[in-house]
Amino acid sequence: MRYFQPEIECAAPEEIKKLQDQRLVETVRRVYATVPYYKRKMDEKGVTPDDIKSRDDLHKLPFLSKDDLREAYPYGLLAAPLSDCVRIHSTSGTTGKRVVAFYTQHDIDLWDDCCARALVAAGATEEDVVHVAYGYGLFTGGMGLNGGAHRVGCLTLPMSSGNTERQIQFMCDLGSTILCCTPSYAEFLAETIEEMGLRGAIKLKAGIFGAEAWSEEMRARLQEKLGIKAYDIYGLTEIIGPGVAFECSEQSGMHINEDHFIPEIIDPNTGEVLPEGEKGELVFTCITKEAFPLLRYRTRDICVLKREKCACGRTLLKMAKPMGRSDDMLIIRGVNVFPSQIETVLIGCGFSGNYQIVVDRVRHTDTLEVLVELTPEMFSDTVKKIEHREKELAEKLKSMLGISAKVTLVAPKSIARSEGKAVRVIDKRKI
Ligand code: DLL
Q1: What pLDDT is attached to residue 92?
Q2: Is the C-beta atom of 282 inside 6 A of ligand 1?
Q3: CATH code assigned at 409
Q4: How many domains does the chain have?
Q5: What is the pLDDT of residue 365?
Q6: What is d(CA 12, CA 403) in angstroms, rounded to the nearest whole number?
Q7: Atom 12 of ligand 1, residue of closest alpha carbon
Q8: Does the beta carbon of 211 lie inside 6 Å of ligand 1?
């Protein structure tokens, strides 16, 4: 348990606040003095470093968004000399310029620490074999969990994503005990393990799944199919990667590493800071990073923060599972639709989590089609029964979303599986 750090993880909230106040003041001073982009933004808002005396003054600072990162690409927000930087990571953004985040060795070390805390919270010790099936490369998942596993002293399998049969072979031969990958890839691995008849040959005890939204129903399925306890982990490239927040044995929200990142929840429309416990957009301020310490970065993730006494002993603030992004929201025939709402209905009706949402525009009208895989048991139903299921699902979706959707039930395994983040939405509209 070398990386359980009770002096931070279980500190009194006032102690954490003191640390945050001091680190925030230092960071603001440093970036104002060294990064012209921040200086300009702060000057425009009429704030000086002297106005920031504690966490309570955070709201005075301007927000940063992905647009700022694009505008400042590639070096405009760099707060350390390039010669001190040792690595970059980058987002897989589909439109516009990529976002590039820089790390000094100090930043990598603190990131490893954050991921080590997540692994330890999931029960990792030096006895464990950690199977990292997140992608390695520009994506932060692989390198992040890899660094954390090294720090704990686990035997680390840098599998990266893909080559599913080889993954399972290694899992069996080397006795992997902790699996780290996206929840959708974990489902695919679980299905394949079952097909290969190897359920009895795997020794997994825990899974650390993140990088995309997943439901409690999916957690229950993964735990059952893989015989594990499944933990959530959250993070984003711009802030550091995985390990911004992590789940403990209580599985009831993720503890935020508040000694490094200060969270806020804001109203996404007005930017107003909301009281703890209200749902809104998550914003982070980095207070320990050297190279890329973003201030008040708008994540677009919608969630709730809760400060409660956790039975695990940790006092770090918790964030609920982010179940949607403000920019994931689809507007279909004027109605706001979140993919997570559709997933809830599907799983509630006994379908697997394999689905795809296809949005198109035909003769100036938006169309919504939901392709849903039948489970192998449902596949052997009569045509009449399948038609009945289709109709029932369409009705439930209509009552949840307020608009009608065409439901198409498809054969098991006919929707392409992803080895990284699942592709749930195909928007063919040319707007
Ligand atoms: O996905 C970092 C990561 C890697 C996290 C491995 C966890 C595990 P990005 O590719 O920059 O970084 O994507 C960040 O993914 O803003 C959320 O919308 C989403 N996301 C990440 N973790 C979760 C999670 C990585 N546990 C974006 N639940 C974030 C829901 C998540 N969404």
Answers
A1: 62
A2: no
A3: 3.30.300.30
A4: 2
A5: 82
A6: 48
A7: 236
A8: yes
